[in-house]
Each structure stands twice: as structure tokens, then as C-alpha cells.
Q: What sequence folds into this?
């Protein structure tokens, strides 16, 4: 068995203190899940780390936070364990290393994606499409051929789905299961926890987003980003249905479903991504791990750019700037698909599994000892 | 940077709950207020940083308290734990006003939570702070800053100049530099003297070296000593304190709540001479945890050893430090440096005295010993299922009760029986007015909040006139 990381060793020591203290029991799901255990394997700690939403309430409330000798800092330590779990469970196995220097990787991939899209557009089509106005049905495909767009999209997205599914399977195996056989109640609870981001509510009063004051800012910003992202996904899906079912070729009118989904989704994503970056910049650095910051900023930046270029594409789609903007936008999107399994984006998957496992365990396990 | 050349209406020495309740109340009443907190900002809040709840009278269910907890029951509880060594008038002032404490604290941004696991089942009598005492302290400081209260960290009040019961200025060390703070009224909320080992040695001798100070190392008792030396009336037994059974391996200072051990009712406890010295199962732990610190302090070497076996492990909250563990009692004795033959005999005698019964971890059960001295009245099961475990115990001192005398308005009383012209006190530094001995969970925060508010209101009304 591989040697445990410093973060895992630290987290186990922290849990020994937390489990005897329990002051934080009302903040989030981590602490009730902790009280169901008396000893903590690496898998248990990875599960708890992925259950942690980084709300930082437990840090600011901690009587043992630095500079106390115990130096308890769960948000930062759990963030590192999460990242280690993303790397350890990545598929193909060797690519887990991409989580090191993740900020550089994401930035590099995004740039390469854009460059490649521009080169392909020039190489495969008439170079003038990049600056001449294209109008009417199929305008986009005169810049990037339809077959190429579909091939790249399906290939990159398909790869991401496969890689993440295998990662999820690896994660469940390595952390000790998903909390038993699948059941409806826990699944519904998990879906509700994700839909409402209940654990970013800090027990009802919000989180310590910036300092020891309570706010719902990060929760709302994350909701904006998540639902914006889902709306954009809905835009792609409805666009695909329009194309293949109804034979309606893009570009669609502004008030069509795909454009409406994309327009509002993109705006939400921009607000969410920019706001979350701002929170990360101004927040008290105490409970933050600098080891994971690069990858997080890069992914938020990429999501912002995807949304922004999408909106710009909408704005300039009838002008000569459309070709260039489409190539840039698609380059970023395909780079994002390829990066998904090796970026912060996997947190949604592992967090979901952790929430499901917790919902299952709550129904069959009880807190170990009370009394003191 | 604070301007220390001005004359403040109110100077408050201390930075815990009692100090901030006084500061906020005085400020809301219009006074200019400066708080001198000895600790640096990350360690601010005195012992309040380690607290969790406040015992609060209530006539019916509230958002955070269940059922009701009325004055007579509260008074009864207090009288029982103090064995009558209390001041009924001041105690009732505190009990009655504790009803308002949660609402007042909420008005200062403190958030309460429903109590869940591991809380001594106190949800009826005690209101729990979401996240505990440090979260409470954070909220109080945030409110104090918003109100424009001057807060000085790393600032120790070293001497208060008192003439004829009237305080005029304070000599402080402000971030290492000497300074003087002028004021019209003074509130002493600087805690007990529990972290002053030299002072403890006056009463306990070398035993004091083995006391673990559970809370802030800044409770040096400097203001307490300074005031008592200047004609302020003293109250309380200097050897009395709130103390619990701590893990013997805990840090000597600031180990906080998590170092306490709840294993006693499910163990037999011997001292260094391998003798049992008290009924481990006398009553439910919430009613007994606060006497064990003192019991251990009175043992040779101020150390004790709780011995149990594998079947007890899940009956109490997990400890921070793993217990000693061995396959036999003799091996366990060797690990902890006790006489093996004696420990085997103590356990054998105990096992032989255990009567049949039905074990119930959370309530007074009928598992007891017969013919054993001292007896174990409840939760007595044979210790015969290896592996065997030992938690070493030392006294963990929370706070001392020696105090300045106050009246029902939190006004400091002078030795001649007259109230001071402009000095008030709140919190641990006057807790001995009410706590002659013993302790009730969450009562320290009730005293701090109630007398903090009285002191703040009294000081503000004094300077306004």
C-alpha cells in the first residue's frame, strides 16, 4: 500500500480531536458523518473530504485552529485530500499526474484548443471565412465543417464521460463503497442536496465565505455557475434535437430555445465564475490550500471564457467577426471537454457520490457514543 | 491605530464573553468604550473560546431550548452543586436574567443551534452556540467593531490606580509598550487566576505543577490581585475551582474541551498507589463530571488511571489520545507504571463484587457492586473482556472562584462594605460571589452574560450622569 500523504495523516489527527469535540456538528454533513465512526481509514477520510464543501465554518469556529498547537484546519486539508483523490482515481491511471500544476495545464490546453480550432478552420475551409460575414442556415458550418464539429464534440465529450465514469468507479472502490445498495430515499436526498447546495448553507445561516461573518454569497454564486452550466448544456441538447429531429439548422433566432438557454445560461456562468474568483481572491487565506488554487482559478477562468465567448459569438454572429469567435469558442469548449476528467470539474462527481454514500449511511448507522 | 491619549468613558479589562457583553451594552447606551484584551487576536476571547452553551431560564420551548426550565429548578440545581455555598440574592439575579441571555447574544450576531450528539443531554437547560464559543466570540467582536468600540489586542492591564474606591487610570502593556489609559468607569472582566501557577502553588504546593489549565494561558489573575491589594473586598475560597478529569497527556495549557474524558462511569479508577478512591458510578456523568478534577487533584501525584475493557469502548465519546491497551491487566499495569499485582487484585476484588444487572449506559442502571469500598453504584460490569484499556487522568482546571465582591448591579464592593465609585466586574473574576464550590454546565456563560450586561449598563449610566 502506498504511503499516506501528509494531508491524510493530518486529517486523521484532526478527526481524533473533532470527534471528541463535536462543536461543529450543525455546520454541514461532514461532522455527523464523522460521529458515525471511531477510527478513520484513508478511504473514510477521502469520503469525508469529498463530503466537505469548503464552507470554512469549522475553521473560523475552531478553538484549535492555528496558531493553537493542534493547528486544526479542515477546509485546507480536506481540499488537498480531495485533489489527491481526483489524481489517484483518474483514468487512464498515469494521467492523475495532470492534477499537479493543474493551473498551467488548464491554461495551456485552453490556448492549444483555440489555436487548433483556428488552424483547422483555415486549413479545411477557405481562410476568408474567418473574417467575412456568413449568414443564413448553416453559417457556422462554413467556418467549421459540421462533420468536424460533431466528430470533435462527440470524441472529446465522449472521452470525458468514459474517463469520469471509470474515475467514479475507481473512487467508489478505493473509498469503501457508496454506502450500500442503491435506494430511492437517499438518492432523492442527494439530488435535493445538490440542487439546493444545502451544505453551503452552514446550518441555515450561510458560510464563512470571506471571514468569520456569515453569508450566502458562495452558495448563490455556485448555484449561478452550476445552473448556468446546465442551461448551456440544455442549449446544446435542444440545438441537437432541432438539427437532427426537425432539420432546423443553426444559427437559430434569438428567441429560440437553444439561444435562450445559452444566453441566460452564459450570463449566469459569467456571474458565477467571476464572483467565485473574486471570493477566492479576497477571502481570509487561513483555511485555503494554495496547492489547489491554481487549478481552481484556471477552471473558473476557462468557464468564464467559454461563457463570454459564447455570448460574444451571439453578439457578432452576423458580422465578419463570427468566424474567428466561433473558432475560439469551440476551441475552448473542446479543450474543456478533454480537461474535464483532469480538472476541478470532477468534484461534482465525487461530491455527488459522497453525498449519496452519506445519505445511505445516515439511514443505517448511528453516532458512536454520546454522553460527554 | 487607537488614540490612547483620550479619556474613554469605560475601560474594560478582558476580552471574553463577560467583557464583550459589558462593552456592547455600555456602547449601546452611548458610552465610548475601550476593550483591553491581553491575548493576540487569534487567541482572543479568554475561556469563552472553549465554551459551548449558556444555561438559560425559560418558561416554555424556545427556538433552541426544549420544555421549560424555571427559577426554582435552576436555583435548586445550583444549590445542590454548590452545597449551599452561594449568595442567594446574586444567584437569583443571575438565574432570572439568564432568560434574556440568548436573545441578547442573538442581537450581537451569535447563532444558536439545536443540540445533537455528545452534549450531555443539555438541550432542555442550555442553549448551544452554533460552532461553539469561538464562533460566539467572533460574532461579539464583529458587533463590537461595528458599534465603534476600540479593541486593543496584545494589551494587558497591569495596574489600576484606585483612590478611595475610585479608579482613575490604568497602566497597561500595549503591544509590548507601556501606556496609560484614562477612563471614567472601569469594568474588570479579566478572568480568574487559574493560569498563574505560582499563585496556585500558594494553596496547592507542588501539586499545582500537575494541574492542566484547560483554557486560556492569559488568565494570570493580575487585575484580581491588583484590586484585592487596593481595598476591594475578597470573596470565595481560593482553593475552589471548576475542574474536570482530563487526559493526563493533554497540553498543560489551552487543551480545551476535547481533552476531557468521559470514561469514568464505565471504568474503575485507581490512583498512583493503585487504590480506588471514589464511587465511579455515583450518578450520571453530567452531574458528576465537574467533581472529578478536584478528586484527582487530591490524589498523590495528582494522577489517576481509568481502567476498563473492550466492552466499555463504545459507551463514551472517543478520546483524542488513544488509551493504553494490553491483553492482560498485568501487562497494562506495566505499560502505565503501576504495581501489576496490586492492580490485578483491585480488578479481581471489583469483579467479585459486581452484582448481576441490566446495563444501561445513559441512565442510572442496576449494575452495582456489593461489599466493595468505595462502592461502584451504577454501570458496574466485570472487567474481564480483553483487550484491557487505560486512560490516564489529571485534573483539568477550568477557572478559579476567588473573586472580587460585587453587588446586584455588578458594582465592585470595597472592603469597608461600600460600593466602589466607578468599578464594576463581570465573569470569572466575580464568579465566586455565586459559586462557592461545584459547577453547573453553562453557568459560567450565564454569569458572564448577565453580569457583563449589568456592568456595562451600570458603567454607562454612571458616566452619563
A:
Amino acid at each position: 500500500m502506498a504511503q499516506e500523504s501528509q494531508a491524510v495523516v493530518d486529517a486523521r489527527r484532526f478527526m481524533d480531536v473533532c470527534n471528541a469535540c463535536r462543536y461543529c456538528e450543525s455546520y454541514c454533513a461532514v461532522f455527523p458523518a464523522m460521529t458515525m465512526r471511531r477510527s478513520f481509514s484513508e478511504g473514510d477520510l477521502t469520503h469525508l473530504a469529498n463530503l466537505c464543501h469548503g464552507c470554512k465554518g469549522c475553521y473560523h469556529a475552531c478553538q484549535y485552529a492555528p496558531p493553537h498547537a493542534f493547528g486544526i484546519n479542515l477546509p485546507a486539508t480536506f481540499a488537498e485530500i480531495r485533489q489527491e483523490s481526483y489524481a489517484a482515481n483518474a483514468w487512464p491511471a498515469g494521467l492523475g499526474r495532470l492534477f499537479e500544476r493543474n493551473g498551467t495545464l488548464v491554461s495551456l490546453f485552453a490556448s492549444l484548443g483555440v489555436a487548433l480550432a483556428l488552424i483547422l478552420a483555415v486549413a479545411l475551409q477557405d481562410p476568408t471565412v474567418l473574417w467575412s460575414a456568413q449568414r443564413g442556415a448553416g453559417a457556422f458550418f462554413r467556418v467549421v465543417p459540421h462533420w468536424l464539429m460533431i466528430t470533435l464534440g462527440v470524441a472529446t465529450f465522449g472521452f470525458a464521460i468514459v474517463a469520469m465514469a471509470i474515475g467514479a468507479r475507481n473512487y467508489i472502490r478505493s473509498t469503501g463503497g457508496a454506502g450500500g445498495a442503491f435506494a430511492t430515499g437517499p438518492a432523492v436526498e442527494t439530488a435535493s442536496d445538490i440542487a439546493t447546495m444545502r451544505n453551503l448553507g452552514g446550518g441555515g445561516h450561510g458560510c464563512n465565505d470571506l471571514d468569520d461573518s456569515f453569508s450566502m454569497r458562495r452558495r448563490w454564486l455556485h448555484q449561478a455557475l452550476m445552473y448556468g452550466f446546465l442551461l448551456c448544456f440544455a442549449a446544446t441538447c435542444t440545438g441537437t434535437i432541432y438539427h437532427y429531429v426537425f432539420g432546423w439548422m443553426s444559427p437559430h433566432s434569438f428567441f429560440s430555445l437553444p439561444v435562450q438557454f445559452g444566453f441566460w445560461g452564459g450570463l449566469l456562468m459569467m456571474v458565477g465564475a467571476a464572483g467565485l474568483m473574486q471570493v477566492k481572491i479576497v477571502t481570509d487565506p487561513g483555511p485555503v490550500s494554495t496547492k489547489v488554487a491554481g487549478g481552481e482559478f484556471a477552471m473558473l477562468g476557462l468557464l468564464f471564457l467559454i461563457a463570454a465567448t459564447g455570448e460574444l459569438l451571439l453578439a457578432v454572429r452576423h458580422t465578419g467577426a463570427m468566424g474567428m469567435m466561433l473558432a475560439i469558442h469551440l476551441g475552448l469548449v473542446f479543450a474543456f471537454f478533454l480537461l474535464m476528467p483532469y480538472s476541478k470539474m470532477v468534484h461534482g462527481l465525487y461530491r455527488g457520490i459522497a453525498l449519496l454514500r452519506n445519505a445511505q449511511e445516515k439511514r443505517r448507522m448511528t453516532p458512536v457514543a454520546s454522553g460527554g | 491605530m487607537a488614540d490612547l491619549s483620550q479619556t474613554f468613558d469605560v475601560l474594560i479589562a478582558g476580552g471574553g464573553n463577560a467583557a464583550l457583553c459589558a462593552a456592547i451594552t455600555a456602547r449601546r447606551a452611548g458610552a465610548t468604550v475601550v476593550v483591553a484584551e491581553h491575548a493576540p487576536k487569534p487567541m482572543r476571547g479568554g475561556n469563552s473560546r472553549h465554551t459551548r452553551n449558556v444555561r438559560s431560564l425559560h418558561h416554555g420551548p424556545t427556538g433552541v431550548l426544549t420544555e421549560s426550565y424555571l427559577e426554582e429548578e435552576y436555583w435548586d440545581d445550583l444549590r445542590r452543586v454548590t452545597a449551599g455555598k452561594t449568595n442567594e440574592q446574586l444567584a437569583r439575579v443571575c438565574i432570572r436574567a439568564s432568560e434574556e441571555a440568548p436573545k441578547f447574544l442573538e442581537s450581537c450576531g451569535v447563532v444558536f443551534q439545536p443540540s445533537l450528539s455528545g452534549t450531555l443531554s443539555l438541550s432542555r437547560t442550555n442553549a448551544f452556540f452554533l460552532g461553539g464559543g469561538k464562533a460566539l466570540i467572533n460574532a461579539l467582536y464583529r458587533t463590537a467593531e461595528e458599534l465603534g468600540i476600540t479593541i486593543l489586542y496584545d494589551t494587558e492591564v497591569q495596574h489600576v490606580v484606585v483612590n478611595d474606591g475610585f479608579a482613575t487610570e490604568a497602566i497597561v502593556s500595549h503591544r509590548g509598550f507601556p501606556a496609560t489609559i484614562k477612563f471614567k468607569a472601569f469594568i474588570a472582566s479579566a478572568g480568574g487566576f487559574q493560569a498563574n501557577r505560582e499563585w496556585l502553588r500558594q494553596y496547592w504546593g507542588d501539586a499545582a505543577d500537575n494541574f492542566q489549565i484547560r483554557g486560556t494561558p492569559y488568565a494570570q489573575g493580575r487585575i484580581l490581585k491588583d484590586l484585592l491589594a487596593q481595598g476591594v473586598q475578597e470573596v470565595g475560597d481560593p482553593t475552589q475551582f471548576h475542574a474536570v478529569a482530563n487526559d493526563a497527556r493533554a497540553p498543560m495549557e489551552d487543551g480545551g474541551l476535547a481533552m476531557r474524558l468521559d470514561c469514568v462511569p464505565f471504568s474503575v479508577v485507581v490512583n498512583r498507589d493503585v487504590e480506588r478512591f471514589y464511587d465511579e458510578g455515583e450518578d450520571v456523568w453530567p452531574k458528576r463530571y465537574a467533581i472529578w478534577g478536584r478528586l484527582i487533584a487530591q490524589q498523590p501525584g495528582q494522577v489517576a488511571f481509568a481502567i476498563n475493557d473492550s466492552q466499555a469502548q463504545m459507551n463514551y465519546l472517543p478520546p483524542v489520545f488513544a488509551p493504553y491497551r494490553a491483553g492482560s491487566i498485568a501487562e497494562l499495569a506495566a505499560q502505565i507504571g503501576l504495581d501489576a499485582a496490586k492492580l490485578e487484585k483491585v480488578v479481581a476484588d471489583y469483579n467479585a463484587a459486581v452484582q448481576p444487572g441490566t446495563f444501561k449506559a445513559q441512565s442510572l442502571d442496576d449494575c452495582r457492586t456489593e461489599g466493595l469500598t468505595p462502592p461502584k453504584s451504577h454501570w458496574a460490569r466485570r472487567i474481564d473482556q480483553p483487550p484491557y484499556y487505560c486512560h490516564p487522568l489529571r485534573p483539568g482546571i477550568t477557572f478559579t472562584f476567588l473573586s472580587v465582591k460585587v453587588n446586584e448591579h455588578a458594582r465592585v464592593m470595597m472592603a469597608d462594605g461600600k460600593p466602589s465609585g466607578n468599578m464594576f466586574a463581570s465573569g470569572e473574576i466575580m464568579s465566586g460571589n455565586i459559586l462557592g464550590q461545584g459547577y453547573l454546565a453553562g453557568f459560567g456563560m450565564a454569569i458572564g452574560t448577565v453580569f457583563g450586561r449589568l456592568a456595562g449598563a451600570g458603567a454607562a449610566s454612571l458616566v452619563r450622569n
The mean pLDDT of chain A is 92. Chain A has 13 helices and no strands.
